[in-house]
From TrEMBL:
Keywords: Acyltransferase, Transferase. This is Acetyl-CoA C-acetyltransferase. It is an enzyme of class 2 (transferase). SUPFAM superfamilies: Thiolase-like (SSF53901). Its EC number is 2.3.1.9.
Length: 388
């Protein structure tokens, strides 16, 4: 089967809630990542076959196929198409999968995959809540078939996180210790310049933004312990959840023919792509069976994986995954995760892959695994092999 290769991967810094990127149009965020990708790779933008970008809550400035808008906002050819993908939090990881599939099938040779999100402008679940003003029901309780199957249990990420914490016996203290480690790792990565190569600084209002804003310096377990729980009788607090944020990321994925034709150097080979599902009520536990499925398909084990990026939507998502997969925390989110670095929904999958690639290159690792929980009880898994 033909191979798919990653030639370049770049991202914007992640902006925090009410931070530097809050006023930037989502299409301009995406355009910034796209321009940086084209410039760094040296690819002729006219040779791109398709632009696939993830975005959740595609309303307002994120509506109207924002992948296409971002490409045009970057100033590139009108002949190059674009498509916006919504697989909830895994949207841009799915964009990577679709790009790889297009290349591996021989349909395309040069594809850009990425994602963008401005959560300050379009809050999480805005597409669902905005529909209510037009008299539409939510996508779950309004379905007879859904209610017949799942009853009226809440379809809610916080509820799902609480269910996971209880099922796996994860305490609030364990979650807070994990969250603190995420901040500590992210701050250390920033201070040691680990993100410098993967970030394309962006100028906003005359100020150059070149550093991720969400990590909290000086946070402590004592401060976390003071926070109120998010749900009655629960153990989850804001301290152990991902942060509202803004950002974009993009990767160049090409065929072997494109490597030769355009003189490109591959940095990684996409070794495996898959997506699996689990309970939509528990919602966030699917990374576990999805990872087990990926290992069964490839013959790899967690011992073969040198670095893992699993999205820290909530601390129990990663803690339960590490328990069942028996993963060493030392190689899981080694530069921190979304609890510290933020989770710009549609962009996170591409951001994680960008960070994973750079981590493998920095440490000399061979295999990297990425997975993340997604609305509807889904999880993508991507395994890449560093080249060179």
């Amino acid at each position: 089967m033909p191979e798919a290769y990653i030639v370049e991967a770049v991202r914007t810094p992640v902006g925090r809630k009410k931070g530097s990127l809050a006023g930037v149009h989502p299409a301009d965020l995406g355009a910034h990542a796209l321009k940086a990708l084209v410039e760094r790779s040296g690819i002729d933008p006219d040779t791109v076959d398709d632009v696939m970008m993830g975005c959740v809550d595609a309303i307002g400035p994120q509506a109207g196929n924002v992948a296409r808008t971002a490409w045009l906002a970057a100033g590139y050819s009108e002949a190059v198409p674009g498509v916006t993908i919504d697989r909830q939090c895994g949207s841009s990881q799915q964009a990577i999968h679709f790009a790889a599939q297009a290349v591996m099938s021989g349909t395309n040779d040069v594809v850009i995959a990425g994602g963008l999100q401005n959560m300050n402008q379009i809050p999480i679940s805005a597409a669902m809540t905005s529909a209510a003003q037009f008299g539409f029901t939510d996508p779950f309780s309004g379905s007879k078939g859904w209610v017949d199957r799942y009853g009226n249990e809440p379809v809610d990420q916080f509820y799902g996180a609480e269910l996971i914490a209880k099922r796996w016996g994860i305490t609030r203290r364990e979650m807070e210790e994990f969250a603190l480690a995420s901040h500590d790792r992210a701050i250390a990565a920033i201070d040691n310049g680990h993100f410098a190569k993967e970030i394309a600084p962006i100028e906003v209002g005359g100020t150059l933004v070149d550093t991720d804003e969400p990590p909290r310096r000086g946070t402590t377990l004592e401060k976390m312990a003071e926070l109120k729980v998010l749900m009655e009788d629960g153990s989850m607090t804001a301290a152990v959840a991902s942060q509202i944020s803004d950002g974009a990321a993009a990767l160049l994925i090409v065929s072997e023919r494109a490597l030769e034709q355009y003189g490109l150097t591959p940095r990684a080979r996409i070794h495996h792509i898959s997506v699996r599902g689990a309970s939509p009520i528990e919602m966030l536990s699917a990374p576990i069976p999805a990872t087990e499925y990926a290992f069964a398909k490839t013959g790899l084990t967690i011992d073969d994986i040198d670095a893992v990026e699993i999205n820290e939507a909530f601390a129990p998502v990663v803690l339960s995954w590490m328990k069942d997969i028996k993963a060493d925390h030392a190689k899981v989110n080694p530069n921190g995760g979304a609890i510290a670095l933020g989770h710009p929904l549609g962009a996170t999958g591409a951001r994680l892959m960008t960070t994973l690639l750079h981590q493998l290159e920095r440490t000399g690792g061979r295999y990297g695994l990425q997975t993340m929980c997604e609305g509807g009880g889904l999880a993508n898994v991507t395994i890449i092999e560093r080249l060179g």
